[in-house]
Amino acid sequence: MDSGPIAKPLREHACRIFRIAPTWRMHPNAALLEKFYSSFQKKDFASMNDCYSEMVVFRDPVFETLEGWKARAMWQMLVERGGTDLAISFANIDAGPDTGSAQWEAVYRFGKTGNTVHNKIRARFEFADGKIVKHTDDFSLWTWAGMALGLRGTLLGWTPFVQNAIRKEAQAGLELYIKRKRLGPK
User: Fold this and answer.
1) Is residue 22 part of a domain?
2) Residue 19 lies in a domain
3) Residue 125 in domain
4) For position 167, which CATH number holds?
5) Residue 62 per-residue DSSP state
6) pLDDT in tens, 131-151
7) 9-20 pLDDT, tens per residue?
8) Is residue 14 part of a domain?
């Protein structure tokens, strides 16, 4: 990288314009999140899962709580099922020694209906020993249901009945995927 008198101000200006963290000042945990989401964009679930500790705890409105190998299996399933339709973007990565956050978006075609989903997610993280130990994704399940299920999801996606049905189906899908792929604890 050029270290001339103009190079550093130009790099800093570019980082402000494109709202990215300058890598030369990035905390190692921010670099870990950058690796996680860059790997997701490349559909490289193995590199994503390298960012997780063995005992990671993942939470979101659909899968609720997944621990360890089941969290890693979920990412593998989502990447494989997303195929070429899955597009990931991320921004606003912020991390320090213990915690971090990011915003990310997924655009994909929901298999059951063929509807396009554009999910906007706020993620929070906890770190230990250079790995992610806790990952919490937050988004509106009602909004997701409206995109994925259409009118039924828009009208009824707020109800516990529909939200619980979504969760049950997603968790059953993960269990079937695990069984078919013969995944499990190592």
Assistant:
1) no
2) no
3) yes
4) 3.10.450.50
5) T
6) 999 999 999 999 999 999 999
7) 555 655 555 555
8) no
Identify the domain containing residue 49 by its residue range.
28-181
Per-residue model confidence (pLDDT) at position 111 = 86
CA distance 102 to 90: 7
Q: Render pLDDT for 48-87 as a digit per residue (tens, 0 to 9).
A: 999 999 999 999 999 999 999 999 999 999 999 988 889 9
Q: What is the mean pLDDT of the chain?
A: 90
When divided into structural domains, the chain yields a total of: 1
Collapsing DSSP states into helix, strand and coil, what is residue 27? coil
Beta strands across the sheet bearing 99-109: 64-67, 52-60, 131-138, 116-128, 99-109, 87-95
SS3 of 54, please?
Answer: strand
User: What is the DSSP secondary-structure string of 91-159?
Assistant: EEEEE-SSEEEEEEEEEEE-TTT--EEEEEEEEEEEEETTEEEEEEEE--HHHHHHHHHTHHHHHHTTS
Nearest Cα neighbor of 73 from 183, 186, 149 is: 183
